[in-house]
Amino acid sequence: MSESATPRKVRTHTLRDFKKEGRAITMLTSYDTFSAGIFDEAGIDVLLVGDSAGNTVLGYDSTVYTKHEDIVRFTGAVARSCTRPLVLADLAFGTYQASVEDAVRHGVELMQAGAHAVKLEGGREILPQVEALVNAGIPVCGHVGFTPQSVNQLGGFKVQGRGEGADALFADAVALEEAGAFAVVLELVPAPLATRVSETLEVPTIGIGAGAGCDGQVLVWQDMAGLSGFEPRFVKAFADLRSELSRAAREYADAVRAKSFPAPEHTFEQ
Ligand code: KIV
């Protein structure tokens, strides 16, 4: 485990304590056993089984196509493969918008798969769902700003909360806290607005493209590690896994073609 990680399990109250202590919360997406185990060892506080799995694992061009069953399956893999982090699972598009019953039923399935909390996108229009989930014993993380499940309505990947939209975004974040959310993700939000929200809310904010004034940060792990090759302004690649994996695959192929692999030490005697 990294030196900066505390040994205790991270749960929702831990994140609130981190905010009080001024300790930044670290969150990465994870959808599989290897990344979950590695990020646990690295001291990441929260593993998000995001609907971005639709893009990063399943090859869709939008999270609109990610299915609940996919997230349930990936949540189980992540939960079985880590000890310390809080496992946060996304409610997929279409699993909560129509009714509070839908929200609770799908939330329960994510918790039974191993999640410690669920995340859903939206502001004041989904408060009944947030309240119903919290009343059912399911911790909820909000998500405002750019909400990828609404990309078709928002007209593309755009910064939200500029100009007149600022007050509405602020009111959404406050309302989510009042409805019982334990944290709120702020995606593609101007940094001054994200800072104002973070200073106002008692619960932590987790930013992605929302500046350093948030109480924590989240990135899609394949972007963070330079595997996806996706590096917009708000992403920093902390490694170049794409080149490294490509190099390994090419060297493997060369060795197979040259018949230098497998060598005697990789081969069984009769
Ligand atoms: O699904 C996801 O990866 C997310 C993050 C972008 C916050 O929701």
UniProtKB/TrEMBL annotation:
Residues reported in the UniProt entry to bind Mg(2+): 51, 90, 121
Keyword Magnesium assigned: yes
Pathway named in the protein's UniProt entry: Cofactor biosynthesis; (R)-pantothenate biosynthesis; (R)-pantoate from 3-methyl-2-oxobutanoate: step 1/2
Cofactors that this protein relies on: Mg(2+)
Keyword Transferase in record: yes
Residues of the active site: 187
Record-linked InterPro entries: Pantoate_hydroxy_MeTrfase (IPR003700), Pyrv/PenolPyrv_kinase-like_dom (IPR015813), Pyrv_kinase-like_dom_sf (IPR040442)
Top-level enzyme category: transferase
UniProt remark on cofactor binding: Binds 1 Mg(2+) ion per subunit.
Residue sites binding 3-methyl-2-oxobutanoate per the record: 51-52, 90, 119
Localization terms from the record: Cytoplasm
Pfam families: Pantoate_transf (PF02548)
Assigned keywords, A-Z: Cytoplasm, Magnesium, Metal-binding, Pantothenate biosynthesis, Transferase
EC number per UniProt: 2.1.2.11
Catalytic activity entry: (6R)-5,10-methylene-5,6,7,8-tetrahydrofolate + 3-methyl-2-oxobutanoate + H2O = 2-dehydropantoate + (6S)-5,6,7,8-tetrahydrofolate
Assembly description: Homodecamer; pentamer of dimers.
Family according to the record: Belongs to the PanB family.
Described purpose of this protein according to its UniProt entry: Catalyzes the reversible reaction in which hydroxymethyl group from 5,10-methylenetetrahydrofolate is transferred onto alpha-ketoisovalerate to form ketopantoate.
UniProt xrefs under PANTHER family: 3-METHYL-2-OXOBUTANOATE HYDROXYMETHYLTRANSFERASE
Protein name: 3-methyl-2-oxobutanoate hydroxymethyltransferase
Species of provenance: Dermabacter jinjuensis
Gene: panB
